[in-house]
């Protein structure tokens, strides 16, 4: 796939699935904006792409803060005429019984995983509409499709992101804008590394392929939805989970 001349913005782009997505688009010729709250990880990625022919730019953004999101979007649109491909990849959560979730925890999960993408997408939509085209890919979670114990608010937010995808796809189809959703299963990322050995072993036993996804495998699905091959595909949800939820 080639994305020469395309401008792509990826949230959560400094690590994990987001980083793999940034590098995949850059490798395919796109100009990619890595939008992330983690300055240290962003600096690491800057060093990694130094000396390559990758065209990677960086934007500071806190997906849990609507003011930060709107300000970052405005700065990006001062520098670029529009975003051709938006990947809402940032996400956050933790494993704990729902009854123990604090109000601040609940608010933060919903802010980052659902409200954040809603704010950023709205801020970046007008130039897409004016151009009569664009691709929006939301990265949710298979947990948002089938549920997951200990992640109830996260699952609710990701389930909301799936519904947001489908509804927005209906609203913007008239402008030739495609909106789709990728739902990863357990993926070998820094977030997964924070989970207990017992939980990771349970995941492995439940996955028919008996391995975790590689971040690059999730990025492959994102690039498909962003490509011309998916020009007639919208409002769809693709599970990339090694068969974990194919019956869900």
Tell me what you see in this structure.
The chain has one domain (7-240): 3-Layer(aba) Sandwich (Rossmann fold). The chain is 47% helix and 16% strand. The protein is built from nine helices and seven strands. The chain has helices spanning 16-27, 39-49, 66-79, 103-131, 143-146, 152-172, 190-193, 197-206, 215-226; strands at residues 7-11, 31-36, 55-60, 85-88, 134-139, 177-184, 237-240. The protein has a seven-stranded parallel sheet with strand order 3-2-1-4-5-6-7, with helices on both faces. Helix 2 links the parallel strand 2 (31-36) and strand 3 (55-60). It starts with 6 loop residues before the first strand and ends in an 8-residue tail after the last strand. The mean pLDDT is 93.
Descriptive terms for the model:
9 helices, about 250 residues, about 45% helix, alpha/beta, about 15% strand, Rossmann fold, 7-stranded parallel beta sheet
Sum this structure up briefly.
By secondary structure, the protein is an alpha/beta fold. It has helices spanning 16-27, 39-49, 66-79, 103-131, 143-146, 152-172, 190-193, 197-206, 215-226, and strands spanning 7-11, 31-36, 55-60, 85-88, 134-139, 177-184, 237-240. The chain is built from nine helices and seven strands, in the order βαβαβαβαβααβαααβ.
